[in-house]
Structure formats: C-alpha cells, structure tokens
Design brief:
With 90 residues, this protein is an all-alpha fold. It has one domain. It has four helices and no strands.
C-alpha cells in the first residue's frame, strides 16, 4: 500500500498497549491494525446509518401508499399543466 494521506493519532499508554497486543495477535503492525480497524468500523457505521428502519405500522402504511392509486394534489396538477405548455416532446 502506498500512503497518500497522513493521520496522526495520540493515545494513552493503556490504549497503545491494547492496540499493540491486538496487532501482534493479528500479525500486523500497529498502523496496519489501526487502519483496518478504523475502516471496518467506519464502513459498518456508514452502512447502518444509510438504512431506513420503520416500525411495522409505519412500514405497512408506506407500502400501502406505494401500492395505492396515485392521486396528484391540486398544486401538482397545476404544475403538470404549466409544464405541458412549456415542454415539447420530440
């Protein structure tokens, strides 16, 4: 791996000792261990935070709305009419 960015990290001796022991168990350098652990944690967090979870009641209402007939409100109807007069389809 070619390092292209630098990130400095300060930790107390207890944290350093724990990381050093864990890195040794994995057969990695401390820097390699920290990179791998930070990336794994970051990807996990980003994946979790990008999911939308709903209670069953809300999910049922959401899917019912998707499955139901589409009825545009008056504002959307007016906007669609204005668009028809301005947009020409080829």
């Amino acid at each position: 791996m070619v390092a292209r960015a630098r990130f400095d990290l300060k930790m107390d001796m207890e944290e350093k000792n724990v990381v050093a022991r864990a890195a040794a168990v994995m057969g990695m350098t401390m820097a390699g261990f920290m990179r791998a652990a930070a990336k794994e944690k970051a990807l996990s967090l980003l994946e979790r935070e990008s999911r939308i979870t709903l209670p069953l009641k809300d999910f049922t209402a959401f899917t019912a709305a998707l499955d139901g007939a589409f009825n545009p409100n008056p504002a959307l109807k007016a906007s669609l009419e204005r668009t028809k007069s301005k947009v020409r389809r080829v």
